[in-house]
Amino acid sequence: MSVRKRSQSPVLIGRPSAHHPSVTLFDTIAVEVAGYETNPRRSKRGRFSNTTYKEESDEDEKPTASSSLAPRRRLSEPSTRRATERGSKRKSTNLKKTDGRSDFLRKIKPIPQTLDVPHPAPSRWQETYDAIKDMRSRTVAPVDTMGCGRAQLGETIPKNQRFATLVSLMLSSQTKDEVTSAAVEKLREAVGGSLSVEAVLRADDHIISDAICKVGFWRRKTQYIKRTTQRLHDDFDSDVPKTVDELCSLPGVGPKMAFLALHVAWKVNAGIGVDVHVHRITNRLGWHAPPTKNPEETRLNLQSWLPTELRPTFTGLLVGFGQPDTMPVLKRSASPLDPMHIVASHTTVRRSKRLKLTTKCEDEASDTLITVDGSSSVIKKEDTVSGIDKVKVHRRSTKRTGTASPRKQKPIQQALDVPHPTPPRWREVYDTIKDMRSRKVAPVDTMGCNRAQDEETVPQNRRFATLISLMLSSQTKDETTFAAVTKLREVVGGALSVEAILNADDSVISEAICKVGFWRRKTQYIKQTAEQLRDRFDSDVPKTVDELCSLPGVGPKMAFLALQDAWKLNAGIGVDVHVHRITNRLGWHKPQTKTPEETRLNLQSWLPLELHPEINSLLVGFGQTICMPVGPKCNDCSLREGLCPSARTVKSKSRSRGVVAEVAGSLSGPKVEIGIEPEVKIELSDTTVRLEENTSRSQLE
C-alpha cells in the first residue's frame, strides 16, 4: 500500500482591523496537508507578501510563513516596503471619541505658502488693479452687504463674532451670498439669538438643518457644523484657531475658508483666500502663464508677486467685481446697440423677439437710408439684389421721449355688493399663524419693502424708496429685491430720490437692478414713474389708490402696500400670491377665488379693519417658511390638527429596514445610503382641498 505524500502549503487567514471594520488584514501561515504540493491561488485584487501584521492590541503574534513557504510570486522589495508603511500608518492613526462614537481626525499636509520659483509679476497689473478698484467703488455687490464679514455684526462677544464668521464661510460654499446671509440669520435665531459654540452643540441636528436648508449641500454642512463645533469645544477652548493648518483640520474647512477666516476673524494676513471668482477673473486677465487649473495654484501664483498689504482686500475686490460685472455666464447687455448695417438679400429680415428697433427706410436717389435709434447708415443700391428697391421694416419704438401719458383705467373696486360670509374658526387660525410667525424670522421681516426706507432721511425719499422696492418686488424674491434697492441707491448717488433717478442713465439703472425679474421692463417703468411723480405729484408719492395705479408698473397690491408703509393709510389689503394661495388652502373662500383681486375683496368684506395692515406680512412670512407653494411643511404646522382642510401628512417608508417614520418629525443626523431609494407615501385627509392656481401672469402683479 503506497503512502500518500504529505506536504506543507501556505494558507491566507483574514481578520478585521481593529481600526476600521471595513479593512481586512491577511496573514500567511504554513499548514501540512495530505497530497501533492499545490500553489496558492493568487488574488487579482491584491498582492500579499510574507509580512505579518501585528494586532493593534497586545495579543500574541500570528505565525509567520518562511520564505520557502511563501506564495509563488513574492512582492518586490519596494512593494513590500510600501505595504509595511501602510500597515504602520493604520497602527498609528489617532482616534478621538466624539459623542460616544470614534471619529477620525483630519490629517492633511501642511498648506504650502510659497512657490519654489516665484511667478513673474504680470505687466500693467497695477493699472488693471486700480481700474477694477475704481469700478468697484461705484457699484455695490452682494459681497459688500451680505459677505462673510457681515455675519459677525449680529454678535457682541468677540469669540462669538469669530465663530459666526467661520460658520458663514462654511455655509458659503456653492451658495450665493444672499442665501448664505439669510441662512446665518435664521440659524442665529434658531439656536437662541446668538451664534456660539455652546448654542450649536445644544441644538438638535434637525433644527440646524431646517435653518440652513436653502444653502447648497445643507445635509452635509449640518454634520460639518456639528463636528467642527465639537472640535472647537474640545481642542480650541470654544474659539476659532489662529493658524491655517489648524483651521484646515476642521471638517468642511479648506484653504480658502482658512485664509478668509484669519483675515476677518483674527485680522491676520496669512495669505489670499481664492474662490472661483478670483480664480476665474485672474485667468481672464492673463495673470497666470500658463493658466492655472485650480484655486490653489492661483493662490500660490498671486502670493508670489502681489504685495502683502493688498492681500486682505484682494478677495472682496474681485469677488464683488465678479458678481455684477465679470459674471461666469455672459449676461445680456443693457447698453444701447451699435448702429446696424443691414444688407438686403434674398432672405427676409429676421425679426428679433428680444429687441424692438425703430427702423426707417427711405429711398433717396440710388441709396437706401436706414435709421436705427437715431443713427443712420447709407447702403448703396448696387449692394442690393436686383429688383428690390426699397426695404420697409416697421418697428414701434420702446424708448419714449418726454413724459409718458398717465394710465387710464377703471377705479379700483373697494367692496363687494354682497359681503362674503365669515369663515368658521378664522380667529383661531389667525392667532395660531401669528404664534408660529413669532417663532420664525422670514425674509419679509428683514428684507421686505418697508425696510427700503430705513437708509433714507428725507421723508419724501423714504416714500419714494418704498414705492421703488414694491415695483421691483414683483416676480422676485425679497433677498434679491433688497439687494437691488441697495445697489440702486448707491449708483444714483447715495439717496433714492425722484431727481436722482431722472438724472441717471437707463443703463445705470439696468445694471443695478439686473438681478430682479423683468429688469428691462422695470427700468422703463421706474423712469416713467419718476417723470410722472415730478410732473403730476410734486416729486412725491400719491396718497390715493387710483392715483398710484395710474403709474406705470403699479397695480392694486403695490398701491395698498405703498399707502400702508409710506403714508400709514389703511386703505385696503395688499394681496400677493402668498396671501392668495394660503387663504384658499385654509378654505376661507367659497367658492375658491381665481385672482388676487377676488381674494382681496372677499377678505376686506369680513376681516376686521385693524387687521388689514398686518395680514399681508403675516401670511407672506408664513408662506415663505412653512406653507410654501411646493412642498409645504404640514408636519411642522400647528394648523394640521383640524384647522387646515388642506393639511397632509408625509410619511417615509424605508425598504431596507421596514420602519415607517414621519419625514418632518425627526431630522436629527441626516444620513445618505447609496443604492437605497426611499419610498414616499402621501396620505391626504378626506377634506383635502386642491387649489389650482390659475393666476394670470400677463401683468406683473
Describe this structure as you would to a colleague.
Mean pLDDT is 76; it is low at 1-5, 33-38, 43-80, 88-104, 329-403 and 652-701. This protein folds into four domains: 6-93, no CATH class; 125-322, Endonuclease III, domain 1 (Orthogonal Bundle), CATH 1.10.340.30; 426-628, Hypothetical protein, domain 2 (Endonuclease III, domain 1), CATH 1.10.340; 648-684, no CATH class. It is built from 25 helices and ten strands. The chain has helices at residues 77-92, 125-137, 142-146, 158-171, 177-190, 197-202, 205-211, 218-235, 244-248, 255-266, 276-284, 295-305, 311-322, 426-438, 443-447, 459-473, 478-491, 498-503, 506-512, 519-536, 545-549, 556-566, 577-585, 596-606, 612-625; strands at 6-16, 24-34, 95-98, 101-104, 359-364, 367-372, 375-380, 648-653, 660-662, 679-684. It is globular and about 95 Å long. Helix 4 (158-171) crosses helix 5 (177-190), helix 14 crosses helix 25 (612-625) and helix 16 crosses helix 17. A hairpin with a 2-residue loop joins strand 3 and strand 4. The chain is mostly helical. The chain is 39% helix and 9% strand. Strands 5-6-7 form a three-stranded antiparallel β-sheet, with no helix packed on it. It has a three-stranded antiparallel β-sheet with strand order 9-8-10, with no helix packed on it. Keywords: 4Fe-4S, DNA damage, DNA repair, Glycosidase, Hydrolase, Iron, Iron-sulfur, Lyase, Metal-binding, Mitochondrion, Nucleus, Transit peptide. It is found in: Nucleus; Mitochondrion. It holds the Pfam family HhH-GPD. It catalyses: 2'-deoxyribonucleotide-(2'-deoxyribose 5'-phosphate)-2'-deoxyribonucleotide-DNA = a 3'-end 2'-deoxyribonucleotide-(2,3-dehydro-2,3-deoxyribose 5'-phosphate)-DNA + a 5'-end 5'-phospho-2'-deoxyribonucleoside-DNA + H(+). Residues 245-264, 546-565 form the Helix-hairpin-helix DNA-binding motif class domain.
